[in-house]
Amino acid sequence: MSEIKIEIDATEAGFDPARLRRFDDYLDRLVDAGRMAGWVGIIARDGKVVHVGTGGHRDAEAELPMATDSLFRAWSLTKPFTSVAAMALYEEGAFGLNDPVSDYIPSLADVRVYKRLGGGNLETEPAREPIRIWHLLTHTAGFTYGFHHSHPVDELYVQRGFEWSAPPGIDLATAVDTWATLPLLFEPGTAWNYGVSTDVLGRLLEVVSGQSLDRVFAERVLDPLGLHDTKFWIEPEEVDRLAAIYMADPATGRAVRNDVLAGGDPTHRPSWLSGSAGLITSAADFHHFLQMLLHNGAWNGGRVLSPQTVRYMTTNQLPGGADLGAIGRPVLPALTTLNGLGFGFGFLTAENPAATKVIATPGEFSWYSATSTYFFVDPVKRITAMAFPQLFPSKALPLYSRLRQLVHAAVVD
Q1: How far is CA 34 from CA 30, 163, 171, in A?
Q2: Cα dihedral sign for 305, 309, 315, 319?
Q3: Residue 370 and residue 334: Cα distance in Å, rounded?
Q4: What phi and psi values does residue 77 have, to the nearest 5 degrees?
């Protein structure tokens, strides 16, 4: 079990303590208003914890308070782990970033691309370019998610049972082969769309390593960093630590428990190990993961990546250096604009903070999940910050932007 505690005085770390309290005050007001059940937050500078906060409950119905060792369903915060594991295998020479994915997953050799909807039927054409591994890392492969409901191809995913999850009992290899039969939204490498790319990447990691995804993660990321709370399933004695998931009531805005979103029994090994959304983790573990990224690939005595690789994967990798405002679709729910944001290998990157209308440092990178767990890493000011509620959907509250503005406003040196 990972522990987390304050390691440096806020003033000594260059923070104004009174301004730093605004972070807790904002989140506590949401809990008091019934709009969020609970939260954990951690802010650090130069690898030393400046602030730890908790509020509300991990399980309001059972009256279990939120704690620093609470466990959370990571949902899309799984994606950075998959991206890091991929780059660790890349450093081993397992593949090249320009390699066609079909070299490793043959079902993706003859993909087709959506052309138009005509007469109630989808018209498609053969892809001119193969899906390459870097396309998976950047969400530029042309895959989608059924839950977007914004494109005719999205509905094909829903019809196959892929909306928020997957058909019961399906394994990852079968899922990828199913997606290979569905058209891509666009030619690989020409646009950005949030979709199942990271799950496909997870399957590729299994193929090139000859290991299941949990072993890939353990050997290349989790064990070197000592992350014992991060895994795809938990032990029965850990269930009481697991935070419940709450959904914002569309009519009232209040947080209502939703056990359907929580999925199946967390103590059972899933039928597929989702590189997009499958992990369970703790705030402390995720804090240590962020320190590895801030400290150029090494932390807690273990090296995961080289400094050059970390810099490369947290640099905007979109075609032509474009930002998401130019080639991204659809708009990510937690963001009011995609302008000024790039995308690296698993991370949003702040290219032009003035265009985003959220205070940030150029070079800052971040990500979030559908259950409103957020983080950012500022390699210039050497700050990491994260907030872990469990509230679906992420657009219910302006947490992503507030986290950044409240933390940056507290930095005075």
Answers
A1: 6, 28, 38
A2: negative
A3: 8
A4: -75, 0
Confidence (pLDDT) at 1: 52
Q: pLDDT digit string (tens) for 42-76?
A: 999 999 999 999 999 999 999 999 999 999 999 99
* Residues in the chain, total: 413
Token pair recorded at residue 124: 């498609």
Q: Which of 144, 157, 139, 147 is nearest to 184 (CA)?
A: 144
Shortest CA distance to 35 belongs to which of 298, 248, 208? 248
Alpha carbon separation from 160 to 44, 155, 192, 222 (Å, rounded)? 43, 9, 23, 33
Q: Return the structure tokens found at 317.
A: 């990798």
Tell me the HSE value of 32 on the side-chain side, using a 13 A CA sphere. 6
Instruction: Report the pLDDT value the prediction gives residue 334, as an integer from 0 to 100.
Output: 81
Q: Where are the alpha helices (DSSP H) in 51-122?
A: 78-91
Residue 357: how many CB atoms within 10 A of its CB? 11
- Model's pTM, two decimal places? 0.97
Alpha carbon distance 213, 249 (integer Å):
35
